[in-house]
Write the structure tokens for this entry.
Amino acid sequence: MKIKIKRFHPHFEPPSIDMEYEVDNAPTLLDALLQIKRQKDRTLTFDYMCRSGVCGSCAVRVEGKEVLACQHIPKDGEYIEPLSVVDVIRDLSVRLEDALVTLGSSKAYPLDMQKVAMNEEDERLIERQSDCILCSGCLSSCPVYESNEAFLGPFALSRVWRYVADKRERAKKEHIDAVVQNGIWDCTLCGNCTQVCPQGIDPKNDILMLQSKAVQFGYQNPNLGGFGSFGLEF
């Protein structure tokens, strides 16, 4: 089986080239990459840790779609490249620190939680978003982030909805206030993020829910009628 990998080194000229490798049958793409690293080319660079789809560090693009290398079953002739819209350190290893900053700027964390009894339905509403492993696959697939680096991005917005939907959170409007600029109204609702999420999270739906909640708090979608968004104090 042959796979082609996009190689990158900042000090090479040209810095980016495609290299093809022949590997024995491997149960996962990560196994194939490890085989290349150990037996054919020790300079190949990529990230991995848990090898069980939990840490998200091995996310790459295969034939233009974001996957976890430890879960993807490789096929002959596939093209492997690093995540897009993030800085490539070397080969398939990318820098994710800047993307993670959006979790703070979007206030995707508890603000004013109170003690409230939770039933199974209450927990079901927020458990899926809590499964995010921050692999940044959704961000890599996002056409909005590709053209606007100020966009908060799918995983941050989905995490915000996790707290807005939490009955224990009293500062729901403060969460909404943080995502109306470069956030919920900028999303095109293309659904790419939902398609590539390895945890089955649906950021597209979560963003729709945030839009609905924003309207309840007095905001208006600036894409409708040509009016800017505004807030009303309650």
About this structure: Residues 90 and 143 are 23 Å apart (CA to CA). The beta strands are 2-8, 16-22, 59-62, 65-68, 79-81, 88-90, 93-94.
